[in-house]
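Possible race condition, two jobs.
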Amino acid sequence: MHGLGNDFVVIDAINQPVSLTPEQLRLLADRHLGIGFDQLLLVEAATSSTADFRYRIFNADGSEVGQCGNGARCFMQFVHEHGLSRKTTLLIETAGGPLLLTRDAAGQITVDMGVPRLEPAEIPFIAPVRHITYPLDVDGVQLEIAAISMGNPHAVVLVEAVDKAPVAELGPLIESHPRFPDHVNVGFMEIVDADTIRLRVHERGAGETRACGSGACAAVVAGRLLERLSASVKVLLNGGELVVSWTGAGHPVLMTGPATTVYQGRIDL
């Protein structure tokens, strides 16, 4: 499946036992020797009585992470297509916190990504006090970043033009910066106008992807905190468009976009 070109292997772990080692995950992620994906998603039974399902996310390097917004839309579409639930609204458990998913009649899926976390310790990011932006020394280059958690950590860098942004060079350096103890996803944001941004994202453990839902949310939050963006923003990614809405402090971020099934198959490990 894919959400704006951010591609996933999605596995039903309710009707079959699934236990994958990091080595098996890396093999599956290999686009030459396996299937290839940015993340692998597991659809599991909920562990609490209040949730409908449990949602687990694994990166191409075999590591497990807490959140993936584009993957959440694919999760909802997968559950619908496979008849695992006929509900149009689902509450799902993730390692990054609960998610509320809604699917409309046209197949567009809205993800309630929850309230953004801005305190450095909650991201986690090493800083003495909370600010809107922070100076960051990256291999001798002085950058100004916003640091935000959307269930996973994000650094957002404001750039003049995303086409010229040094994503391949700075992305890995910021991802593994010592001030981000759990590593970080890195968004390079160009503000077109108050209602539109362009965005490229280097995802931790995956590299640059064609789209990143939680990264789009983090970028809009950063732009809103800088008083540069309106409450509803069109996010233009290499893979397509998302609409992200945030009314401000204490309120959840809402992300709306498509999810597409590419093919189904089997693989022997």
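Job #2 (started ~2 s after job #1):
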Amino acid sequence: MSMGSSNKKGVRSDINITPYIDILLVLLIIFMVSAPIRSYDLPIRVPQPPPPTKEKAKPDYIIVDILKDRSLQLNQQPTTLEELNIKLKLAFAPRPNRNMFIRAFATLEYGVVFPVLDIAQQAGAHNIALLKSEESK
């Protein structure tokens, strides 16, 4: 007199999902094999070489160099700390892009670079990047 006899004969109400899994795996393999075969037509634009120019274009960036002897250069032109504010204001006036670089030797103290940073901000520089100079000037 067992209450839960599992040896019943008759109709089972369980769904056999094995054939569904087999069909799913076959479809998966078919899609995996056919996916790389599909070709895509995408427009490709190859960069063209620039047209030859007879004159050198003027660079659109401003570099203030602080040399080892603590002298200043604005785009390779010697300048002083007093003249730097005026020259930077004149250089930034026609430009919508007011980015500049300050290049100095790694051996210089920060106290040498800070006045140049202050003058550049007063002149209207928006983004200032600091570069490390490794050349012997």
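The two ends are 105 Å apart (CA to CA).
Logs attached separately.
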